[in-house]
Write a structure and sequence with these properties.
The protein is α/β, with parallel strands linked by helices. About 25% of the residues lie in helices and about 25% in strands. The longest helix is centred in the N-terminal third of the chain and has 15 residues. The two termini are about 30 Å apart.
């Protein structure tokens, strides 16, 4: 079988691969990803944006990363998505932050202290697939492309993936923002 190379084919392929993962696989691989992150040169920053996983989509469990960040006394930023404008607003995660799932099962802050995109130093980016050039494929709604475009050019973008890179994604757009790193349970890709 020919490996898929378009965003649409890859999206479908990796969604199906994810469906096969058990809860134990997800926990184990998420912990391995978190352990890999420790060796990255990113720990001198202040604001770290973390996505809260959609369990129904079997995303990387970022709880281990949250523990890592709070252990290092970092400012943790989480988002809320507006599906009409496709814009994300960002909030500081504190002990008082209330989190509630939206209609798409995305855990989001109900309230909190807003954080402008420009102040975020590091973004952990969810994805379905990525290639060896640092291009990523998400769910196709464009939330992260818009958000990453608002960040500083120096903001470090780190993809988190259960699976290794594909050789290339055929239909990449000029506006697609590349990752600086992608971390899998097995290795770290630097772009």
């Amino acid at each position: 079988m020919k490996m898929p190379t378009t965003k649409k084919e890859l999206r479908l392929h990796y969604k199906n691969l994810r469906k096969e993962l058990t809860e134990e696989n997800i926990e184990e691989k998420s912990l391995e990803i978190s352990n890999q992150l420790i060796s990255l040169p990113i720990w001198d920053k202040t604001y770290y944006h973390v996505f809260l996983p959609i369990q129904e989509q079997k995303e990387v469990n970022t709880e281990f990363i949250l523990h890592l960040l709070s252990g290092k006394d970092k400012e943790i930023v989480i988002s809320k998505s507006d599906f009409e404008t496709r814009i994300m607003s960002h909030f500081l995660l504190t002990d008082n932050t209330k989190i509630k799932k939206n209609e798409y099962n995305i855990p989001e802050p109900v309230n909190g202290l807003p954080v402008p995109s420009q102040t975020i130093d590091v973004v952990f980016v969810p994805l379905l697939a990525f290639d060896i050039f640092g291009n990523r494929i998400g769910y196709g709604k464009g939330f992260y492309d818009k958000f990453l475009a608002e960040c500083n050019p120096e903001t470090i973008k780190i993809g988190l993936s259960f699976f290794e890179a594909v050789s290339q994604i055929d239909d990449v757009f000029e506006s697609d923002i590349k990752l600086d790193y992608c971390v899998t349970p097995e290795k770290i890709y630097r772009f």
